Each structure stands twice: as structure tokens, then as C-alpha cells.
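Risk register update: the risk that structure generation would not scale has been downgraded. Supporting records follow, first protein first.
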Amino acid sequence: MDHRVSPSAEVEMAVVVEQLKKKYPGGATVALAVNQTESGQGYAQGFKKAIEGTNLKIIKEAPLTDPNAAATTLKASGAQVLVDAGVTTDCLTLSMAVGRAGWKPDTFVQPANCVDGKSLYEPAGEAADGQQIMVWLKDPGNRSTPRTRRSRSISPTWRRRATRPRSTTTRSTAGPSPT
């Protein structure tokens, strides 16, 4: 049984920002690739809201209407972190464009809708190595939160594509589970 669920883009980006604050306690520069759809804009706005009052700074933003142009523009910014505020169709195209541009940002964050490794990351090969993807898992055995019809709790997990094909590593995030 598949227990994957996805909360709002705002909740997801808040968790992403918490992870970035832990990795970069002194702050970091961010390049933001934004899909121009309502979904992409939701991710972008959620990220911008979540970084308010932090040492994370967006130094360049580019639309994903042309992933190659976006990758080139964002690479030129020198940002440490690349955040994809995109939709499923952007996952592979942005990965490939970043690879063609020869860019290896220190941290490359893809949204939860990019979780399908077989169809999205295997074709990208090395271009997808090291990317971080938020995975939301529903734990039907967790009785610490009130029951709802859809789920009992949601806990975020980071999945990082390893350098070896078909191998992933997973680490859990700290903090309360958003419900």
C-alpha cells in the first residue's frame, strides 16, 4: 500500500527552509527556478514566505518557460542553493538543463512532485546526482495525532539521489509532523 501524500506547497517549502537553515546556519544564497503555473507560483510564494526573517537570500529568480535559459541565468548568479518551484514536467527538464550548463549547486532542492525516480531521475543520470527531494509519508500506525478520514499524520523525509544508480539514502527531518 502506498502511503504517500502531499501537503500544501507552503507547508512543504517551510520544511525545506528549516532544512536549509540547519545546513547553512550562517545563511546561503538561493537561485529560484519558477514554473509560471499556479502550482509553480504556489511553491515560489511558499518559499519566499518561509525565508522571511532568515539568512537565506534569493539572489536570482528565473522562469521555467525555457529550462536551458533558466539554468544558465541561475548558474551565473553563483547561488549556493537551487530551488525548483516547479511542477512534475520541470523535474527532468531542469535537471538536464542544469547538467548541460555544467552547474553543480551545493544544494539542489526539487519539490515533492518530483519523487518518481524511475521516470524522472534515471533518464537524467549524473545530472540528478545529489538532488534533494521532499517525500511525505503517511504513518497509519501513528496515534499521536487526531484521526482524520485521510490520514493520521504526515512526516517529511528527505531523499537524496546517491551517486550510484538506483541507490538512495534517506534521512528524517526533526520536528513535529504537519497535519
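Supporting record for the second protein:
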Amino acid sequence: MAIRAEKRTNHDGRAVRTSHTWRAGRTRHTARTGHTRHTGQAGQAGQTGQRGQEGHPESRRFWSVTGWAGVTLFGAATAADAWLPLSCTPTADPVCAARETAGLVPATHQAHAVSSSLAMTGALVGIIALTVAARRYRIFAPLAAHGPALVAMELIATAWTLTAIAMFTAGRGTWALGAGQRLQVLLVALWLGLLAWSVHKERRT
């Protein structure tokens, strides 16, 4: 384009070259500015995404919050159990079982059943959620390593207990309901000990 301008005229060739050079420079400058603008926008998008993740920590802490809520429910319901003792043991005493079926036992029996159900529900939520949190968020190393085994055993013990309760309610025997409940409590205690050790170790590191 500059060569054609020189052939067309000589006396104003300098003006043509100056205009062409200025235009080419403006094109190159615009191209560089556009590249810089594009790079800046990409950087801003990355920073916005990072700020979005940092501004919503609950998306990364959901399992932790749920787990601690479950542990809190377990503790509160277990404390309520202590204030709601049974007048007799229906799973070991047929007479007590008959009285309970006939509604001749104190109201604490029904309340104890509710608090026990809440306690075990909270324990299951806490055990599962905090174990998932330990593995997903890479916290509480001992819990992340050994928690899944305890979770599996706890689920098996819970299935045993629920089956025994269903059979006992249907009048088909106790199916070692007491043993299943004790196994549940034992596994929860072991898991809580593992959690306490994991928290202690986490704070020391």
C-alpha cells in the first residue's frame, strides 16, 4: 500500500508514508491493547471465581457442619435419656413387655424411646458426615483413615437393631435386641474416641 502511493506521486509521498505508518502503528497498538484487555478479562474472571469460592465456604464445609450438628443432637438426646429412666426392661422381662403393650407403664417409656431414637439418629449423622468431611476436606487424618470401617460396622449394628425391634414389636422374640443396642453404643464410643484423638492431633500440627 505504501509502494503504490509512492508510484502515484512523489511530492506528497512523505505525507502518504507518514499517514500509512501512523495507521499501521495505530493498528498494531490496537491489536496489542486488545490482547492486553483480553488477558486482563481472563485474569479478572479467574479472580472472580476464586473470590466466589472463598465467599461461600459453606459449600466446602457442609459435611463438617452437618456432622457436628449430629454429634450435638446425640449428646443432648443421650442426656435426656438419663432423665427418662425405664421402670422395667421390656426386652428382658415378658411381664414388663406385656404391661408396655397394654399401656400400663409410665409415660417415660415412650419419651425414652423417642430420646433414644433421636440419640441414635444424631450419632449416625455425626459419624457418617464427619467421616466424609475428614476424607473430603483432608482433615482429621486418623478419622479419615479408620473412620470408614467404624461407619460400616455401625451401619451393620443399626440394621441388626432395627430388625430386632421390628421382630420384637411383631411378637417374634427379641432377636438379641439388647446385644445389638450395646454394640451400637460401643461403636459410637470408639468412634468418638477416634474423633477426639483426631481433633487433638490436628491442633498439635
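The radius of gyration is 36 Å. On this basis the risk owner (M.S.) recommends closing the item.
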